[in-house]
């Protein structure tokens, strides 16, 4: 079997173990990522969290994940994907304990920030391991489809598992369970995975890591605080810092011989489509669906567990569709465009949500949007590793997921602002759905417009 680096991966059994461990880690990471959605009220009450505190409880893990994704992807390629993956599992266990015993909002948010870093390591190194283990072709399509399906399954199960455990033993029970699962994951990874890294180890791009990390942190910090008012001095200061630091990152990367992100990759059509598609997916799809259960709960008067079923139905369909994408012979950019169009159509089908609706009225839009998300999850995963050199698969994963999670943070802020600014929850929800549909359609057109030979 042809492999892509100096460290071979032998046999289908080894490949199967790699896929199983990475898939389990992806599901756990996404379950944990969304665990706060269904227990926020109880957490806020126990931790005495006000509006700002609740915002950080929801956004802390996104900040930690987005800041470190690209950096840990490069670290995994250069120093060992298995090593970074196991370290991520161990960090997720330790940070889950911090969350489980946190006495204050600040302590809990620190734990979530650390969980974000651990999530970044699992996602970037995990997809890098898959890219190394499975050569381009049908087997890689199957493996990346499974990885994408785990994103959907984790999103579906996370809020429900968290809410279910909270009913039995309180909201802290989820973090105890996550810590135990993470320890088991680290042990399984140590036993089942084989190490892989780039053939030539590069020097660490400290300036790139610093400017990108601080720039993304400033941007997401501004977005998080901006939900309480965009004209405040601290928000404007953070936005200015983000612009300056990200501009500095571009300058640094253009002048560094061994950059964290080779900006020349943006000239590759597939890399541009994969990164841009991930960003649009974050803004128009994840951002909307992260807040839609709250909108549905307010409009229909449903309890949190029932409102969370909206997310479960959407992501459950995404899970099923992702597993089948390998059967499609279309190019990646066509799959991304089709996925964004389906998400837009699903959004449009939900316009008009009102207290008079029965639950069955939500199903068509959620199913169509879920099918689009399934296409996107699988296609973006495959393009993330195929649009970069074989030795940089974890970096490709890191870049793709960085774009996705930055987009998701922006999307949540935009959707919340639109959904809460109208004269009624239904009117605000309609505006948010229409805007997200328009963004998704624009992203689909952009993906098709990028020429293959670029």
From TrEMBL:
UniProt-annotated location(s):
Cell membrane
Q: Is the keyword Transmembrane assigned to this protein?
A: yes
Q: Which InterPro entries match?
A: MFS, MFS_dom, MFS_trans_sf
Superkingdom classification of source: Bacteria
The record's section on Pfam families has: MFS_1
Q: Where is the Major facilitator superfamily (MFS) profile domain?
A: 18-454
Membrane-spanning parts? 21-44, 56-77, 84-110, 116-134, 146-166, 172-193, 205-223, 235-252, 272-292, 304-323, 335-353, 359-381, 402-419, 431-450
Instruction: Could you list this entry's UniProt keywords, alphabetically sorted.
Output: Membrane, Transmembrane, Transmembrane helix
Q: How does it sit in the membrane?
A: Multi-pass membrane protein
Q: Which CDD domains match?
A: MFS_MMR_MDR_like (cd17321)
Q: Does the keyword Lyase apply?
A: no
What the entry lists under SUPFAM superfamilies is as follows: MFS general substrate transporter (SSF103473)
Q: What is this protein's name?
A: MFS transporter
User: Where does this protein come from, organism-wise?
Assistant: Actinoallomurus liliacearum
The beginning of the lineage is: Bacteria, Bacillati, Actinomycetota, Actinomycetes, Streptosporangiales
């Amino acid at each position: 079997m042809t492999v892509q680096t100096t460290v071979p991966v032998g046999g289908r059994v080894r490949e199967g173990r790699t896929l199983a461990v990475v898939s389990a880690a992806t599901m756990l990471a996404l379950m944990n990522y969304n665990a706060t959605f269904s227990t926020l009220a109880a957490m806020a009450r126990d931790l005495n969290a006000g509006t700002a505190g609740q915002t950080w409880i929801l956004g802390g893990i996104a900040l930690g994940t987005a800041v470190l994704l690209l950096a840990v992807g490069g670290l995994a390629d250069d120093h060992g994907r298995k090593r970074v993956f196991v370290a991520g599992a161990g960090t997720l266990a330790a940070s889950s304990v911090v969350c489980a015993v946190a006495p204050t909002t600040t302590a809990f948010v620190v734990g979530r920030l650390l969980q974000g870093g651990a999530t970044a390591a699992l996602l970037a190194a995990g997809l890098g391991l898959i890219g190394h283990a499975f050569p381009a072709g049908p087997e890689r399509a199957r493996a990346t489809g499974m990885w994408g399906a785990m994103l959907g399954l984790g999103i579906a199960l996370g809020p429900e598992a968290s809410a279910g455990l909270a009913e039995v033993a309180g909201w802290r029970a989820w973090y105890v369970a996550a810590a135990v699962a993470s320890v088991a994951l680290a042990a399984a990874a140590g036993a089942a995975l084989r190490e892989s890294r780039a053939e030539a180890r590069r020097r660490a791009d400290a300036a790139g890591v610093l400017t990108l990390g601080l720039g993304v942190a400033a941007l997401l910090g501004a977005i998080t605080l901006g939900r309480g008012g965009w004209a405040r001095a601290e928000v404007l200061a953070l936005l200015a810092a983000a612009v300056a630091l990200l501009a500095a990152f571009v300058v640094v990367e253009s002048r560094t011989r061994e950059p964290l992100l080779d900006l020349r990759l943006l000239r590759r059509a597939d890399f541009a489509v994969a990164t841009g598609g991930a960003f649009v997916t974050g803004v128009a799809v994840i951002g909307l669906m992260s807040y839609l259960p709250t909108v549905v709960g307010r409009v229909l008067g449903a309890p949190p567990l029932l409102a969370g079923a909206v997310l479960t139905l959407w992501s459950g369909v995404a899970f099923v569709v992702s597993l089948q994408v390998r059967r499609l012979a279309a190019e990646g950019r066509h799959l991304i465009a089709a996925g964004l169009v389906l998400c837009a159509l699903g959004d449009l089908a939900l316009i008009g949500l009102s207290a008079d609706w029965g639950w069955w009225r939500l199903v068509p839009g959620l199913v169509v949007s879920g099918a689009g998300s399934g296409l996107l999850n699988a296609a973006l995963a495959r393009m993330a590793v195929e649009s970069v050199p074989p030795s940089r698969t974890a970096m490709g994963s890191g870049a793709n997921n960085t774009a996705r999670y930055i987009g998701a943070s922006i999307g949540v802020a935009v959707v919340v602002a639109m959904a809460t600014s109208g004269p009624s929850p239904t009117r605000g929800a309609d505006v948010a759905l229409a805007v997200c549909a328009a963004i998704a359609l624009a992203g689909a057109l952009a993906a098709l417009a990028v020429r293959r030979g670029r």
